[in-house]
Amino acid sequence: MKRGIRLKAMMRNLFHREQVEGRLDAEVRGYVEMLTAEKIAAGIPAGEARRQALAECGGIEPVKQGVRNARAGVGLETIGQDVRYALRQMRRSPGFAALAVLTLAVGIGANTAIFSFVQAVLLRPLPYPDSNRLQMILVSTGDATRAPASRFELFHLRLRTKEFDQVAGIWVTNGALPGEGDAEPVKVAAVTPNFLPMLCPRPALGRYFETQDEDPNAMQSIVISNAVWVRRFGSDPGVIGRAVRFGKYRAVVIGVLPKDFRLLFPNDQSVPANVEAFFAEKIDASEPQGPQFLHMVGRLRGGSTTARAQAEAESIARQINALDGHIADANFRLTVVPLQADDVREVRGTLLFLFAGVAFVLLIGCVNIANLLMARARQRIRETTIRAALGASRARLARQLLTESLLLAVIGAVAALALGWGAIRAILAFRPASFANFNNVSLDWTVLAFTFCVAVLTSVLFGFAPAMAVRHIRLVENLKETGSRAGWRRRNWSSALVAAEVALAFVLLLATGLLVRSFVNILRVDPGFRAENVFALRTFGANAARLREIQHNLAALPGVESASAISHLPLDDAGNWYDYYWKEGAAADAQNSVMADDRAILPGYFGAIGATMVAGRDFTGQDDPSHPHVVIVDDILARQLWPGESAIGKRINVSDSPQGPYQFQRDWAVVVGVVRHVRCHSLTAIVRPQIYVPFPLAPRPTMWFVIHSAGAAPDLPQAAREQIAKLDRYLPVSQAEPLGSVVDRAQSESRFASLLAILLSAVALLLACIGIYGVLSYSVAVRTSEIGIRMAIGAQRGTVMRMVLGDGFVPVALGLAVGITLSLAVGPLIAGLLFGIKPADPVNYAVIAGVVAVVSILAALGPARRAMNVDPLTALRYE
Fold it and tell me: d(Cα 656, Cα 695) in Å, to the nearest integer?
């Protein structure tokens, strides 16, 4: 009941203020009049009676204020007064308000945008049931890590595990789009029957794989993506149970996946998000020496942990090693890592660096606004002093200043949401390939809450300094001084804040300089081939004879200098074909310890991409299963196996498949050529050496044709497609693009991080310059009379300019010293993002320090020139 009465009184006080104030004024004045009348009746003169009445009650306004302080809703009313006063102050200084809001919008907006990615990529759970229990199970054998498993290894892991309630496998390859119509190659996946239910409990239509689908005599069953169902089958629900064309065969569609289902796996696992069709892969004991191609993912049992699963995996690996001597020679090992953490490990460093960068920008913005607010507080010191003299408490004055700061932050946060939304759209438009899986970035409630918290925190950060300055008000001294001079002596705050801005800007600029130089180093890397005027396109399902026909027809096109084909395009990294190799005479324990990338090629491939033959010859049409088996190796492998010797004529044991695609067997082959290493996986790391095998000895369903033209040939893609269609219109052709585009994708993440870092650094440097300019401008303004006196008694303009520049450069020098110290600590944290440069590179420190110093001097020139032009008579007359 009491709460209801109080709430009713508070609503009346807040929304009927004029009536309440009128009634209060009438009551207080009536009481004073009553006291006055009583004293007049006692014989006191009217004037003296009123004076005594006012003295007795304490004055009309103090009484009214006391009543106001005691009534319900006084806190909200005071806040409303503070907000209205803050709005009036902003209207009085629109330039300051616009600059402060813009600075906050940039700082908070950048933080909002990058946090959206951090939240979506690093913090938000994967869109799978019990995603926190999903684990990647990685294989290590010999010198290979993060490798796939064989059927044999997956079978025994599933048989022996107690920490996982499910272990599944997937292998993604290239295939033809299911259904009738033009041939189109797509990504298809062989999966264990439990793979899809583990990640997606129910299909949108139909069912998942069951035991009968693994029968080798039954027609192959497939589950298709929602996108294929829509564009290939017109969203027809009757497709379930229908036999459709699937490459050269027919398959029964048994299920359709939900629209939002995507595969989110680490990039190096060769499991892209856009798999269009799935078919069942049967897992049994198989042969111990079977190919390793299955990427494993498991779901922990309830209550289990990654650490317990890792301990069990190590035990199971020892048991599998004991089953087969060749596996033991390869030192088979298992590693368990959370799927979420492994999925984002390649982009985590970039995201955290960018998040730290935008935090630095926001801190610099806060310091800048704090400096501006300090300058305003000093300009308003006389007003503040008068308010304090009239009875306002220091807490009340500090709250008013904090309210102004909070209002600026709120307005800045609203603008930041619009800016952050635009930044998200821009980042998504220009994101690198490693960010391609992260399309679910948006301004959700978590991001909005983050933005609100940042706004409140920033308002406290930049509002703290002027609010604390209220404690140092000296009433008598400040009232004696003029408005322009009152309180200006405390300039140490401004210098310290400028030094902080410079230090933060230096750290961000130094990190940016390191990233830019890393990117330049990446641009200078020799990938082992020349991408200029080379065009690539992918085909699926052609045999050796058809490939030779296509090669001949493409080479005959106008302007084409050469054409050939390879199973795995450099830097595309879409496959995982690599295996053990060893030289003739190698010991048993050296036969399963090192791996190389295996590549099937047609003759003329090295000439088409501009790779350098170091020794020996290229393949010819005679290099087929009916002749001695031959290979070409790269120079890294040649030096590794035969240091100081020629590799030509040496025999090497490799894995090939002369009986058909994926029918692998161990084989001895003669090295007929050595080629310079081609960077197949990364521009910044040599992952494995390479072995090239003639296509007839290792046929692959998917082959990339590379066409080298004499110059720019914009019509070449269409002409190449037409030539292939003439030979076989059902042969799928896709991903026609210049080889230079593939190289650009390999450079994209470094370029992306460098460009964003440059943008953030430019903003940071601009804010620091604004801070230096603002502090010196204020210094010149308050020292106008001093400068005038100096010039009146003979000071030269150059002397005045040096004095002002000196005032500006002292905090800059201090900031540089602090920034260098901070950078020495921060540098190692970004070492993982660098290539070809060390974090403590002295050249980088010298260049960035020079840039900051020069830009700071340029920022100080404006106020210094204004000080030089001070007219002594005008300054003295003003004083």
Answer: 10
DSSP labels, 29-86? HHHHHHHHHHHHHTT--HHHHHHHHHHHHT-HHHHHHHHHHHSTTHHHHHHHHHHHHH
Helices marked H in 175-249: 195-199, 226-233
| Alpha-carbon span 863 to 263, nearest angstrom | 59
Contacts of 379 (CB under 8 A, 6+ apart): 483, 484
- Give the pLDDT confidence of 493-534 residue by residue, as tens digits: 677 778 888 888 888 888 888 888 888 888 888 899 998 999
Q: CA-CA distance, 83 to 85, in Å (whole number)?
A: 5
Distances in whole angstroms, Cα of residue 773 to Cα of each of 95, 401, 719, 781: 15, 23, 61, 12
What does the chain come to in residues? Answer: 879
Query: What are the residues facing 35 on neighbouring strands?
Result: none
pLDDT, tens only, 29-87: 777 778 777 778 777 887 777 777 777 776 666 666 665 555 544 455 566 666 677 67
Burial of residue 57 (CB within 10 Å: 0-12, 13-18, 19+) is middle
Which two tokens mark 439?
A: 């399309």
Mean pLDDT of 696-711: 90
445 C-beta neighbours (distance < 10 Å), count: 7
In angstroms, rounded to a whole number, what is the distance separating the alpha carbons of residues 443 and 859? 37
Taking alpha carbons only, the member of 290, 23, 269, 265 closest to residue 152 is 290
- DSSP secondary structure code for residue 301 in this structure: P
Is the Cα torsion angle 311, 313, 318, 319 positive or negative in sign?
Answer: positive
Our CA angle for 591, 597, 602, nearest 5°, is 120
Is 155 within 8 Å of 166 (Cβ atoms)?
no
The answer to whether 760 touches 110, Cβ cutoff 8 Å, is yes
Supply 43's token pair.
Answer: 């014989």
Find residue 613's DSSP bridge partners.
Answer: 675
Which two three-digit tokens encode residue 313? 């995996």
Q: Once rounded to an integer, what is the mean pLDDT over residues 827-841? A: 83
Question: First and final CA of the chain: distance in angstroms?
Answer: 64
SS3 126: coil
Q: What is the dihedral of CA 766, 769, 775, 777, to 10 degrees?
A: -100
Query: What are the extents of the domains in the chain?
Result: 2-72, 80-129+345-490, 143-330, 494-521+741-879, 542-731
Q: List pLDDT tens digits, range 233-288.
A: 889 999 999 988 877 778 899 999 999 898 988 877 888 888 999 988 877 766 67
Percent of the chain with pLDDT over 90: 24
Maximum pairwise Cα distance, the chain? 138
Token pair in block for residue 117:
């990615």
Closest CA to 370 of 488, 508, 494, 499: 494
Asked if residue 684 lies in contact with residue 535, where contact means CB atoms within 8 angstroms, the answer is: no
In angstroms, rounded to a whole number, what is the distance separating the alpha carbons of residues 177 and 245? 8
Instruction: Name residue 539's beta-bridge partners.
Output: 703, 733
Q: Across the chain, how many H-helices and E-strands are there?
A: 27, 23
Q: Give the C-alpha separation, 200 to 256, whole Å.
A: 11
- Residue 79 and residue 97: Cα distance in Å, rounded? 20
Tokens of 820: 């260098």
735 SS3 class: strand
Phi first, then psi: give them for residue 243, nearest 5 degrees.
Answer: -85, 125
What is the average pLDDT across 747-753? Answer: 81
**Eight-state DSSP code of residue 237:** G
